Amino acid sequence: MPSINPGVSESGRHAEDLRQPVPGEPQRGASPPKGFRSIFVKQSGCPPLEFEERVFKACLYWHAKPFAWVFKSLNPRFFELDRTMIRYLGDTINSREVGTEIACFREANLAHPSFFRTLLRIRVSGRKAGHLATTLLARARRGEARETENELPGTSVEQQVADLLASPSLGNVAR
Q1: Quick check: is 22 in a domain?
Q2: Which is the most buried residue in 23, 107, 148, 161, by most CB within 10 A?
Q3: Residue 9: what pLDDT?
C-alpha cells in the first residue's frame, strides 16, 4: 500500500534521505566549509574583529609600512579598497575564489590609478594576500592546519606570515 504522506517512502524514510550524495555538495550534518577568515583567526589566536587589521599589516608592502599611519591619519579612507578586498578575501573557501578576489583588487587599482597606490605601491600587496589565503586554505584542506603554539612556538602570526611570504615559491616577495 502506498504511503499517504508525500515525500515518505513505504519504508518510512524521507525522500531526501534516499537521495544519493552529489560530489562537491555539502552533506547534511557536515560542517560548512571554513573560510580564510576563520582559519586565520584560529591559527593566529586573534579575536575575529582584529582579522582585517592583522592581514592588512601582514600584507602591506614593506616600504609602505612606515607611511601607513600617516596616510591613514591624513585620509581615513585611503586604504578602503585594501580593507574591502581583505573583507571579501575572508569569505573565500578555495583558491579559485581567492584568485577572483585578487583579480578584482588588481583591476580596481588599475581602474582608479593614483600616484601613491599605483606607482609608489602604498597599499596591500595582492600577491602576498593571495599567497597567504591560498596557503592557509590548502593547509586546512589537507588537515595540516595547527594551532599557532603547536606549529611554531613563540612566533607571532606576523612572523609566520613573513616566513610564508619569504618562501621560495613566491620568490621572496617579502623583501
Answers
A1: no
A2: 161
A3: 46
